[in-house]
Amino acid sequence: MRQLSEQPEILVMGTYPPRECGIATFTQDLTTAIDGKFNHKIKTNILAMNRNGINIYNYPKEVSFQLDDSNLQEYIDLAKKINRNNNIKLINIQHEFGIFGGEYGSYLIAFLEIIKKPVVITFHSVLPQPDNNMKRVVQTLANKSECIVVMAEKGREILKEVYGIKTRIAVVPHGIPTVPFVESSIEKIKKGFKDKIVLSSFGMISSGKGYEQVINALPKVVKKFPNLLYLIIGETHPVVRKEEGESYRNFIEQKVKKLKLGKNVKFYNKYVTLEEIVQYLQATDIFICSNNNPNQITSGTLAYAMGAGRAVISTPFLHAQELVTPDRGLLVKFKNSKSFEKAILKMLFNPKLKRDMEENAYANTRQMTWNNVALAYHDVFKKHLNLSKNHNTKIPPINLNHLNKLTDDFGIIQFANKTEPNPHSGYTLDDTARAMIVCSLHYDLFKDEADLDLLQKYINFNQYVQQKNGQLYNVVEETKKVRLDQWSDDAHGRALWSLGFLINIKSIPENLRKKAAGIFNKACKVKNINSPRAVAFSILGLYFYHQANPTIKNVKKIKGLANYLVGLYHDCSSDDWQWFEESLTYSNSKLSEALFYAYLATKEKKYLEIAQSSLDFLRSITFEGNIFAPIGQNGWYLKDGQKAHFDQQPVDTASMVQTLLMANQVTKKKEYYHDAMKVFYWFLGKNHLKQVIYDETTGGCYDGLGEFSINLNQGAESTISYQLARLSLDQHRIQTKINKKWKIIKKS
């Protein structure tokens, strides 16, 4: 058992691996997710429930306490011990009636009678027709809890209406792993199921699973689809095996033989790991959930299948009624083989219907990923914990895998279908410029040689789209044809920013910087730069170029462009609209940021004053309480109009992070740094949907935040924008340390 630290702890009480139990897996997944996001502020400990004092498990180090479920005195003694532990601030009980001793787990009441810590109970079962004893036990548990968590809205309804529960009830969905949406054909080849139509069910086997109804439905299906393969994955539940042996497994295996389905039904009699579950689900065409219990309020197997983007056929138990809407799957009758047969054939004869269901299942389960579930549990816990105000999630490590995946030999592909690059979308200078800054900064910070290969490609792309007059064109088709009818001064200006940034990083090999400088100087000759953002990007590029090649001429150019922004500001601004334009659209903060850089280059205070006043105005509009809400693309924000709240974009969030960090660096005002961190946490779930926008598993970023859902595509602009924001935090941290060191040296 591990040593307890002084860090605030949440004690999670339930079964835990290596005990083979669905609650054990859930407890491990939940605590891993919470620790992964919050272990810099709080951490979890485990109180593991043992069965009958007989089963002894070789628990991992995170298990600090064990309890024999059949020993009432142990409940009392352990509660007293926990009360004496000042580190434990809250107890979360993962509740299932069968894992606690006494009638309906009533021994748990004795534990709660003694415990003096706040308690949150997660009910994995909520039965709608309890007898009086069960009702009394549940009511007592609720009365001794600060909050109850259920995984379906129906659970809250039953607890309130049937049990009369007055304790606060939160609905937090069952967690699911974050897995990419992939075609089943890819994983089927790996599993040796090529050319098979794969149906699957997984979970611990018991007679309530209803597999016999599915098997009975298959003969007529197989006649039409002889290449069908139904996988039944999982071992018999240990408790069932102890009490009933393998009678149910033998029963369904005999049924397979009787119906001559030996080539179409396969059993995998083993306890499957999470990795194996994901592999089997990704190889699945249709997932079958045939549970016979109409009152089942939680199904992890169903949640996992839909979370992997599989179309499902399920009996209409309580949890399935909420999850399996008509656009995500089909509900069938209990214990009705004919109903299963019709549903399977309907899906197999309608590939488009199945495909639509897969995409809808995947899209509508993103709030159920463990990252998002950890955030939801933290929101529940923090109401009963005395934590510091700074309880943000841990910042993930830098991961450029998706950026690399989007980059081919020519450039960076513009769009993605989910996580897969879409080469038909072509390439843009906008994305290439952002990617150049990311790779330049990443190389400067970490000296990763792989960055240089990417930079070579991106510089070549700039050279490819540059015309004789210096103009850098934005759009290149999949065929590598430059769209000369679509010149964008914004893209041109953004390219100047990226080229200047690269040129200023002395650690980058000279040959790359020299090549970039040639493109930069030629591009600077272009005169028709009028859009405010193009001007702002150009100022940034000139500033960095000037740092590497300081000349009076560079300063004059910066002043000329900055004066243009100042003129726009004076023409448009008023007491209640301190801005450069009659509207707020995209990457707004870059206009303010450009004037901060102009101030650094010239030391003219008018630039600093307008930079601050415009940025403060933008902050007043884009912060709603402690939540950053960038201007939505669904309508923007016109002067004297209403702010659009939705279709929020990562590019706007990243811009604001960079601008606020710059403002902090120039003015030394801590409020700018604190706001930069608040903005960054938009990516990590601090937004109006409370959903994580950055995908830690891929290193990609979702393409936008809507009113009710996120855009699941991980395109170049969004992915690079997140990486820009993330790397800017590291750069700012390092620069702050350097500045502090110089202050100490100067004082000494």
Describe this structure in words.
It is a single chain. The protein has 27 helices and 24 strands. It is an alpha/beta fold. It folds into three domains: 9-171, Rossmann fold, CATH 3.40.50; 184-368, Rossmann fold (3-Layer(aba) Sandwich), CATH 3.40.50; 401-747, Glycosyltransferase. The strands form seven sheets. It has a seven-stranded parallel β-sheet, sandwiched between helices. Strands 10-9-8-11-12-13 form a six-stranded parallel β-sheet, with helices on both faces. Helix 7 (211-224) links the parallel strand 8 (197-202) and strand 9. Helix 23 packs parallel to helix 25. The longest helix is centred in the last third of the chain and has 32 residues, at 716-747. The two termini are 48 Å apart. The model has no long low-confidence stretch (mean pLDDT 94).
Annotation keywords:
7-stranded parallel beta sheet, 748 residues, Glycosyltransferase, Rossmann fold, 24 strands, 3 domains, 27 helices, 6-stranded parallel beta sheet, single chain, alpha/beta
Topology summary:
Layout lengths: L8 E6 L7 H17 L4 E8 L12 E6 L3 H12 L4 E8 L11 H8 L4 E5 L8 H12 L3 E4 L2 H9 L6 E4 L12 H8 L5 E6 L8 H14 L3 E6 L4 H7 L2 H12 L6 E4 L5 H9 L3 E4 L10 H8 L3 E4 L3 H6 L5 E3 L5 H13 L1 H13 L6 H13 L18 H6 L6 E5 L2 E9 H18 L2 H17 L9 E2 L12 H15 L6 H14 L8 H17 L3 H21 L10 E2 L4 H14 L2 H18 E2 L2 E2 L8 E2 L11 H18 L2 H11 L13 E2 L4 E2 L2 E2 L4 E2 L4 H32 L1
